[in-house]
Fold each of these.
Amino acid sequence: MAHPHFVPEITDSFVEMHEQYLVPAIYAQWAYRVAELAEIDSGNRILDVACGTGPLARAAQLETGLTGHVTGLDSSEKMLEVARQHSKIIDWQLGDAIAMPFDKNQFDRVLCQFALMFIENRVRAIKEMLRVCRPNGL
């Protein structure tokens, strides 16, 4: 049986609620733990898939140091607008997790926090994550 396609509309009020309540209560506290577990090294190239307003990307940026590079990818321009307000250093890009606008083997670490459940074609998204991650990456 096919499941109905669920794509929540990202409204301004949702983004405000997300940033005010969900980020501090859930996303931010786990972002630092995920970044730590990812064993990010100084100088690494990091991709945060479905980054939302960017708490994980910002945590990863702290781990990469001055020589690293972090990219946040999200399908919502409204979420990225808020993310850009938090960090001018991170490369915030509009794009889809199932068709990423990146070359093969481009990142040392590809991270995704609390988003896979909202991606309709999870297998394809994971294949894309593997495609853009360097061999021996994570």
Note: Residues 12-37 form the longest helix (26 residues).
Amino acid sequence: MWPDGEIFGTICVLDNKENHYDNKCVKLLELLRNSIQKDLQLALDERMLEAKIKYIQATENKLRESEIKYRELFNNMRSAVIIYNVKNGGKNFIFEDLNKAAESIEKINKVDVIGKNFKKIFPKGLNTDLFKIMKHVWRTGVP
């Protein structure tokens, strides 16, 4: 019987003379049948897992390729891009990433600002155009 319950074949026990098998022998044949069914289910499960693994690996490869393309575009565009995380209801703006154009325009080094609060990098910068733009984008979602 297949794992879905459909019968696909029989177990045939051949002998050179007619036999009437006792309960012990019938139970043994049933155990053999159950073992074969479980092996078939295991083989089916294994094939399904292999297909899932291949799909996941292909998806991960596509994601890596997409990340590389994104990074190339992000790092080499002329416009300044700053990615930040807002905490405490808009009181803290934490730098997550920025591109080369942002480094050049704002005269900051990426490694010096990632993970840090805007206020620590620009202590007097809360009235700067950059901070006003960041706050506007956070409030409205519009750059």
Note: The chain has two domains: 21-76, 82-140.
Amino acid sequence: AKTVSNHTSAIFAKLQVAGRSEAIVRARTVGLGNP
């Protein structure tokens, strides 16, 4: 689980977001959250 947490933190840092909800919003904005 720690590896996943580290990976998620790296994604957050890359997207310059503070948390999961903001990351989701940012991802949708750039089109990553669309099926």
Note: Helices lie at 2-15, 20-29.
